[in-house]
Design a protein that fits this description.
The protein is built from 5 helices and 5 strands; from the N terminus they run E-H-E-H-H-H-E-H-E-E. The protein has 159 residues and is α+β, with helices and mostly antiparallel strands. It has one domain.
Length: 159
């Protein structure tokens, strides 16, 4: 069977050693059975290529335009909760641009799992959410992270 891959980029004040010590605990979640991780601090240009290819793709440009259009219309209807959700989505898309340019993403968490790249990305999303629940983040601290994966010939941002 094929092995799926995804990369999660995130910022965190914890050391690489602290994060690596937490990963085995996170892998115990039954949803993450079979998921393997590699943590890289200060990802090099090669690891940032996923982000770069993502922002160069048509799918990314479409997501960005749709999100901007939806934000514009949400403002017309004064839909605060929808606007917050869309603003969060836009921030995720903008973060991919920052990662591609080396302005964000202190860590890259590479995930591998038997199956598709999208399945690996979904599981990585669960793992990164669990990292956010650790003492690495203060209560109420904003989480800055995003996941990218390849789907056929397009690089995509995990929704």
């Amino acid at each position: 069977m094929k092995t799926g891959h995804a990369i999660g980029y995130f910022d965190c004040r914890a050391s690489k050693e602290e994060i690596e010590a937490e990963l085995p605990v996170i892998k115990k979640f039954k949803e993450l059975h079979g998921l393997e991780f590699t943590l890289v601090e200060n990802p090099d240009i090669q690891l940032r290529n996923y982000a770069r290819k993502t922002i160069e793709g048509e799918d990314f440009r479409n997501q960005l335009q749709i999100t901007k259009d939806l934000i514009e219309h949400a403002e017309e209807y004064h839909d605060e909760s929808g606007l917050r959700l869309l603003a969060s989505r836009l921030a995720r898309l903008e973060q991919v641009v920052n990662i591609a340019h080396g302005e964000s993403g202190r860590y890259a968490l590479i995930a591998r799992k038997e199956g598709t790249n999208e399945a690996a990305a979904k599981d990585l999303s669960v793992a990164m959410y669990q990292l956010y629940q650790t003492y690495f983040y203060e209560p109420g601290e904003e989480y800055v992270g995003t996941i990218v994966y390849k789907d056929k010939d397009q690089y995509k941002v995990m929704e």
